[in-house]
Amino acid sequence: MTDGVVAADAAGLRRAAELLRQESVCVFPTETVYGLGAHAFSAKAVAEVYRLKRRPSWNPLIVHVASAADAEALAHEWPEAARRLAARFWPGPLSLVVERAHHLPANGGPSTVAVRVPAHPVALALLEECGLPLAAPSANRSESISPTTAEHVIRSLPDVPLVLDGGPCRLGIESTVVDVTVSPPRLLRPGALSLRAIRDVVGALALPGDPGPGADPTSGVRSPGLAHRHYAPRARLHLVDDPAVLAERAEDADPGTLGVLTHLPAAPPGAHVELLSADPLEYAADLYAALHRLDDAGVTTILAQAPPEGDDWLAVRDRLTRASAR
Ligand code: TXA
Ligand code: MG
């Protein structure tokens, strides 16, 4: 039985917490994207998350908690970098990978755990109401576009028992994931929190491709979820660097089935155009919603103007690159 989308009021929160305590699942809003929540240390609840998302079992989940103290309780070691980053950015869009406390069930997963304190009143109220650490991946089918509204969730996961509606997510792109088990800390996934902000607190930050501690000699990537196609709309997405080339390709395409995603005002006529902000934070906040709109419009091809170079656009470039992978 499903309750569907419900208001995130006291009754909704009570019902959601009840489901979580019964080792079922529910969807809740965070400041980044909606998360499919489950008691993080219930094998049954976590299995349901993987089943609903059709997520490969090797890709571990981020555990959401109400405070830095609750996060530290899940860690075997809480390094100085974790202490400082948590003090500065939590609640907020930063996930920290730490060594996992030995008393936690590992279920064959990694010896580390990713933790974060979300900055959303509904997420925090739910954590308080249920009193459980909540594993919560983005509430979408594996590899498809992450949800930034309750409606996106229902379209991707129609069978989910309950969705707490918190309106559109403020940041619209997932948390930045940083491995603090190594020194210097290493970026595993660019996201809503900028590299500059993190470097201001910890000094050096290694990037996914950099050699050094934590680098995977075989792939250069250590975050298991990053090695493949992801965040993809139904339409085939092509990233195009040169606006003139984009205009040319748009001219050759059937305008009825063409979508264009760009931050440059000079968009080709005819096509279904999603003109996003030239500010990277505003662009990120609307990116997934724009991809959902293009899917709704029934386009089969999306020409995406490549965003500018530079750290500020790193997360957006990452998501668009993955969305274009086959
Ligand atoms: O903003 C977010 O982080 C959202 C909201 C709901 O909080 N959650 C989210 O979860 O994006 P998910 O499952 O879609 O992405 C989790 C990422 C994946 O890239 C995964 O590989 C990585 O975090 N991850 C999780 N645990 C890890 C670990 N122990 N070591 C390395 N990477 C880990
Ligand atoms: Mg995801």
Major sheet: size, sense and barrel closure? 8 strands, mixed
Strand segment count:
14
Q: How many domains, in number, for the residues?
A: 2
Widest β-sheet, arrangement of strands: 2-3-7-4-6-5-9-10
| The CATH fourth-level homologous superfamily of the largest domain | DHBP synthase
Put simply, the count of helices is 10
Q: Low-confidence runs (pLDDT<50, min 5 residues)?
A: none
What is the overall silhouette? Answer: globular
Give, in order, the helices and strands. EHEEHEHHEEHEHEEEHEHEEHEH
Structural class: alpha/beta
What percentage of amino acids are in beta strands? 15-25%
Supply the CATH class of the largest domain: Alpha Beta
Q: Estimate percent helicity.
A: 25-40%
Q: Which fold name is given in CATH as the topology of the largest domain?
A: DHBP synthase
What CATH architecture of the largest domain would you give? Alpha-Beta Complex
Distance between the termini: 36 Å
**What small molecules does this complex bind?**
threonylcarbamoyladenylate, magnesium ion
Average predicted local confidence, pLDDT? 93
Cα-atom Rg, whole angstroms? 20 Å
Can you offer a commentary on this structure?
With 326 residues, the protein is α/β, with parallel strands linked by helices. It folds into 2 domains: 4-219, DHBP synthase; 236-323, Rossmann fold. It contains 10 helices and 14 strands. The strands form 3 sheets. An 8-stranded mixed beta sheet has the order 2-3-7-4-6-5-9-10, with helices on both faces. The chain is globular, with a radius of gyration of 20 Å. The model has no long low-confidence stretch (mean pLDDT 93). The structure holds threonylcarbamoyladenylate and magnesium ion. Threonylcarbamoyladenylate binds next to β5, β6 and β10.
